[in-house]
Amino acid sequence: MKPLQLLPFITPVCSYKDNHTTGGVKVIIDTDFNTIGDDGQVLAMAAQMHASQDIHLLGLTIVTGNQWLHQEVSDCLKAVERVGLEKQVGVYVGAETPLLHDFSSFQLEQILFGNATAYVGAYLSAPKPLVPPPDGFATNTVPREQHAIDFIIESVHRYPGEVTLLAIGPLTNIALAIRKDPAIVPIIKQIVIMGGQIYAPGNSYIGAGETNWWFDPEATRIVLRANVCRKIVPLDVTNTVVMTEELYDTIADYEPATPITKLFAGIERWSYVYDTVALASLYDQSLDLDVRDLYVDVNSDFKATYGKSLVWNTNPYPGIDVYSASSVVFKVDNDRFFDLYVDLLTRPVPVVLGTTARNASREQSV
Questions:
Q1: Domain Inosine/uridine-preferring nucleoside hydrolase spans what residues (predicted)?
Q2: Which residue ranges form the domains of the chain, and what is each CATH number?
């Protein structure tokens, strides 16, 4: 038997630019997609960044979280058509269930610890028949044949040191990719994670943990213990980036209307825009006003605090190769964030590749 090759545990050197990325940083968005909630807004914004060559969007990998996998895939296929990227950006089907915390485990959780009092995503019910977005199902787009896990692995090897993973759902796909091919760990440029709660209260199940990490704590632990450059955008910061009715109206009433603003007009109005903060932090590091290096893990014991973040200021076990520091964002420039948010969500769609927003608007009006 060929011996297992162990990778040396060397603290990753993470370099971050002070302003928005240039030259098109390569990004894979790993998402529990929804049509025009925060995940859908991330795609609409990222499509504009891709069109202006500020990022190079390699693909979207889908994981069960907000909804069941096949509903998310269906919604995402329509979304890439809506923004005009169906030929350039593939949709890759990923993990249908968490590593251990499947629907039956959630049902047991409720028996042991009580009924849910907060958000549970897909676990609100068993899988149901597909429901079309307001503007209908995708008409000419299907998922790519390659599995999401293999797409992540192949992309990281194809572009060593260049691929950033934007993780805005449960971390199942990324954990499985790391488990399948640990050699990707030192050549991932960065993982930007919307998830966790450091000192803030949770927002899932009975309020102990943050939704993405509670949904698959075992996968979260694998990613947090991987020796990779990591930026965490937790509830501690997203809870301070608050949408107002005025901001909602600015986008919903924007003229000329676009397919995105029309969808936005019918959105359920939440106070927070979780995943979009993580995208903005990836795109423009200067938005981050308070970033701290912390050692972060997650509680994977099956009890009432399942999925709750664990945090230390210093390495709790410096003698063994378990933890490396994560950069944790606690504050962003809200005014500049919302300027970017409104700008990107009101630009013309479908996007026109290789043009600025002003040029795209002019070309589409001809």
A1: 27-339
A2: 25-365 (3.90.245.10)
